[in-house]
Amino acid sequence: MISLARVEMRVLRLPLLAPFETSFGRDITREVIVLSATSAEGIVGWGECSAFSLPNYNEEDTATARHILSQYIIPNLLDNPVQSPQDYAARYAWIRGNRMAKAALEEALWDIAAQQAGQPLWKFLGGSRQQIPAGVSIGIAADEATLVEEVAGFIAQGYRRIKIKVKPGREVGPVQAIRARFPDIPLQVDANSAYTLSDEHVALLKQLDDYGLLLIEQPLGEDDLIDHAQLQPQLRTPICLDESLRSRDDVRKMHEIGAGKVVNLKRGRVGGLSETLAIHAYCQQHGIPAWCGGMLETGIGRAINLAVASLPGLTMVGDTSASNRFYAEDVIAAPFQLVSSGPHRGTISVPNLPGIGVRVDMRVLDSYTVNYNTYRPSLVIRLGGG
Ligand code: OSB
Ligand code: MG
Description:
Layout lengths: L3 E19 L2 E15 L4 E5 L13 H18 L5 H7 L7 H18 L4 H4 L6 E3 L1 E4 L5 H14 L3 E5 L6 H10 L5 E4 L8 H9 L8 E2 L8 H6 L7 E3 L6 H10 L4 E4 L7 H14 L3 E3 L6 H11 L37 E3 L12 H7 E7 L3 H6 L2
Parallel strand pairs: 5-6, 6-7, 7-8, 8-9, 9-10, 10-11
Antiparallel strand pairs: 1-2, 1-13, 2-3, 4-12
Bound molecules: 2-succinylbenzoate and magnesium ion.
């Protein structure tokens, strides 16, 4: 059972090392909500909300997530203990959508539950490996020469798979330029919904078939499966869905209608680790390749992503990069690094201490905090319960 004595919600603003450009915008700062929940016995669990400051990846943003958490979830949870993280997921299933908000507190409960069981999160979730091959996601670059240099830099660091962001007219050239220098590196592209089924767009996507890409991620509408099912048969390259997959049921529909062949698994986008495990089980059952996506996480969310990436069904390299991919300074005491030599070169070690397994550096955390709230059980309940 998990009974909470306190929940703290912080909004952080972290400067990105370099601007990150996708088909939907250009970011220089990561605004992110971090939660900590303290159990009655004094165990602290951490969670991180995937939502961005703007609703441009999906419909959530940091303000809507704070609203859902502070209005509907935190006060209720403080006054009513849960049996398990899965019990939490079931209790707040009545809240439609708002999956990233719900996921953030659920993962703090997973952290507590894993610590109660004395296990690292990766083991508690059913993970099967401790060295995670690192992949990197590269934003839309100023020009092709700059992009190729960026790719070369990440390969030199040991990254095992490259993903580049694309948008209409900025795909064939960049992919061709990378392939000219690196004919064999595992390479994939992510369009973040920038394409349509227009003849012009489909022709561009078809040209990508010539470059041996692992996959094309989310070419069409963020809320669409039907159009993707129209597109997939026209391409040899597998379509991987990201934005469109919000639940196990979405993954089932993708599979049944042929809207895509690969799953990008993001714990926040699907509403938490319980749903993540359900999707993982479905993918394993149906032989669907999957990998762990990223949302510019701090070390807290990054630790949880690594635990997800250790699941046996996550058969492809994910957007699981080191702390210094996006940030000069991480909020955890020991930032994530790539192993630089030996057989594990280009992998990241999954934390092996109980729970998410990282120590948050409170001084650093405070230095990036722009908003802070503490929540406690209501006095009435406390008096009533003796
Ligand atoms: O679509 O996967 C995405 C970053 C911001 C928003 C959406 C996406 C991304 C990334 C980077 O590709 C993932 C990461 O490395 O954290
Ligand atoms: Mg994506």
